[in-house]
Amino acid sequence: MTELAVDPSPVRDGQIKRHGPDGFAGMRKAGRLSAETLDLLVDIVKPGITTLDIDDFVRNQFLKNGAVPATLGYRGYTASSCTSINHVVCHGIPNDKPLRDGDIVNIDVTCIVDGWHGDTSRMFPVGNVRRKAERLVEVTYEAMMRGIDQVRPGNTFGDIGRAIQEYAESQRYAVVRDFCGHGLGQLFHDAPNVLHFDEPGLKTAVLEPGMFFTIEPMLNAGKAGVKVLADGWTAVTRDKSLSAQFEHSVGVTEDGVEIFTKSPAGLDRPPYLPR
Length: 275
Ligand code: MF3
Ligand code: CO
Ligand code: CO
Known about the structure:
Elements (H helix, E strand, L loop, with lengths): L20 H21 L9 H14 L3 E2 L12 E4 L2 E3 L13 E10 L2 E10 L5 H18 L8 H14 L3 E2 L5 E3 L6 E5 L17 E4 L2 E3 L5 E3 L6 E3 L5 E3 L2 E5 L4 E3 L16
Antiparallel strand pairs: 1-4, 2-4, 3-12, 4-5, 6-10, 7-8, 9-14, 10-13, 11-12, 14-15
The structure holds 2-amino-4-trifluoromethylsulfanyl-butyric acid and cobalt (II) ion (2 copies).
């Protein structure tokens, strides 16, 4: 009779994994480091700083804390963060162009701590932002939270998507359909795809304790359409309208949800005044 001395490495087999206490403990550590890293960026993101400066900060912060950036070398991606400005929907690649007063930028970071992934993003206003942009950011945060409010055993992934879409559309914004949330844990992107909209006729899985996944809606001020630029990563709105996104990593508990990437400093949403 043979026995494995250690757990086999996790594989993406299409099944939605259910994790135990060790998984929750691992996700808490990883989620906290990613959230703390975004907390520190609140005082750094200002007009004049480049997204490469931000990326360097994120990488150093992770490495200093015994973690590694999950995006570094992931499917050919070479940065430690995604920085998506204004009409960039997601997967913006850090570069040496300074941020400008009035920009809104999504900073998306994922660390790996002891094999577990903490994946989170927030919108950062750069200097003084127009009311229109501010409102899109506020509604996008609220849309994510309405999705998270649906997370409890017995509800379905469809309930999450429907709550997000209903709220976004009631505020006259469009939900991006080309990107979705995802299972995560010891894998960065695992089953299931977590849609941020309702797909009529699609039967989605029932939430069970121990499932870990992200909720990361992207909302556009104009139409939902996106395209990916020639760099193979940068996704932008087809109509050049503003886009915003927030992301938390969450786990289903016995009676609800645990947000692994909650800001320890209470800086989950702009204007980032600690409360
Ligand atoms: N952090 C992103 C997500 O929320 C994934 C980025 S993959 C990269 O899933 F390669 F673009 F960095
Ligand atoms: Co994600
Ligand atoms: Co992310």
